[in-house]
Amino acid sequence: MPLVPMRAILEATEKYNYAQGAFNVNAVAQAKAVIEVHEMFRSAAIIQGADLANAFMGGRTDFANGTLEDKKIGANNIANAVKKYGENSRIPVALHLDHGKSIEACLAAMDGGYTSVMIDGSHLPFEQNIELTREVVKLAHPRGVTVEGELGVLAGVEDHVFSETSTYTNPMDAIEFVKKTGCDALAISYGTKHGANKGAGAKIRKEIAIATKECLRHEGLFCALVSHGSSTVPQYIVKEINELGGTITNAHGISKEQLKEVSKLGIAKINVDTDIRLAVTRNLRELFWYNPELKTHDSIAPIWKLLESKTSDFDPRVFLPPIMDTVMYGNIPNEDVALIIEAVEKGVKEAVGTLIVEFDSFGKAPLVEMVTLEQMAERYKKAGI
């Protein structure tokens, strides 16, 4: 089955009242692992490549400075990996662009094979955000591609999405935004925070999600609500990283209990990135800790040197540049690199599998209608959106 538009998965969450985790990847091995663990739990899968992840997967190790051409190459590489492992899967798989910053970035993702895109105009004035999002909808819906917008500003930093303070989403503004843009999903600001430093005891303003959802229902509008900045930052993994030579401090996430609660109160999609980064970093450190002879093996010694020198980092993109051919294309040249990839995949499966269960999407794959992009495009056309 070809990859499905994300809207098909979101419609099932709305109908059956559960949340779908959406997981960010930055390597072929991560995409493979995300699909495999969703298959294990019989859950649909939303795989996300952030705008800068596309630059990294395009070979740009200084991904913050990635060009549009880098992102086009990376979008193709991520899409090819997801298609390779997802098109013959028995579960629905959607590929979503996270935090697209421009129309050009969204087009690059769509051309590359993404079935859903986010256009992040949250930094713009309200009317300009509407205009930008509507333009992306006009380009995406004729292709059957889902569009996610964002309204309100989350504090924190992740992939250079940065704000010192939050601006909460106004439910009435959300209604106007959805009506004028025709977007399928909307990321709201309601107390979550990007990155690993969310602060101890971070509290979700669940009343914002409840009010926004009720207003949408009252107006007869379909729009799935999305929770960004929702990583749980498992404390046991942080502790293990530091016991293995890391120096991570002030790392706190959103509690699983709060996320489980809002998954029944209108939040349909929950974005997670940091948990995966932490689990993979822990596994890489553990591999060298228990196999010190690997520190001198030519093909992977540079990875150890980066781990050794960058003890406070936990983004695998900091450590994996020495094996970029493997990152970008999945090629495994020797047994040492195979050990690295095994560690990466196990970390992904640990973090993702836990949250599939917590968000209650396990066993729900058969509830998702297997719709093609062409079929979804026809539905948009008939609905006039």
Describe the structure in your own words:
The chain is globular and about 65 Å long. It has one domain: Aldolase class I (TIM Barrel). It is of the alpha/beta class and 385 residues long. Helix 9 packs parallel to helix 11. The mean pLDDT is 93. Strand 1, helix 2 and strand 2 form a beta-alpha-beta unit. The strands form two sheets. It has an eight-stranded parallel beta barrel with strand order 1-2-3-4-5-8-10-11, surrounded by ten helices. Strands 7-6-9 form a three-stranded mixed beta sheet, with no helix packed on it.
Strand content: 5-15%
Query: Which overall shape is indicated by the principal axes computed on the Cα atoms?
Result: globular
Number of separate strands: 11
CATH architecture assignment: Alpha-Beta Barrel
Structure annotation, total helices: 16
Low-pLDDT residue intervals, each spanning 5 or more residues: none
Domain count: the total is 1
Helicity, in percent? 40-55%
SS-derived structural category: alpha/beta
Mean pLDDT: 93
Tell me about the largest β-sheet: 8 strands, parallel, barrel
CATH C-level class: Alpha Beta
SSE blueprint and pairings:
Blueprint: H1 6-16, E1 20-24, H2 28-41, E2 45-50, H3 51-57, H4 68-86, E3 93-100, H5 103-112, E4 116-119, H6 126-140, E5 146-151, E6 155-158, E7 161-163, H7 171-181, E8 185-188, E9 193-194, H8 206-218, E10 224-227, H9 235-243, H10 256-262, E11 267-272, H11 274-290, H12 301-309, H13 316-319, H14 324-329, H15 335-358, H16 373-383
Parallel strand pairs: 1-2, 1-11, 2-3, 3-4, 4-5, 5-8, 6-9, 8-10, 10-11
Antiparallel strand pairs: 6-7
Helix pairs in contact: 2-4, 2-15, 3-4, 4-5, 5-6, 7-8, 9-11, 11-15
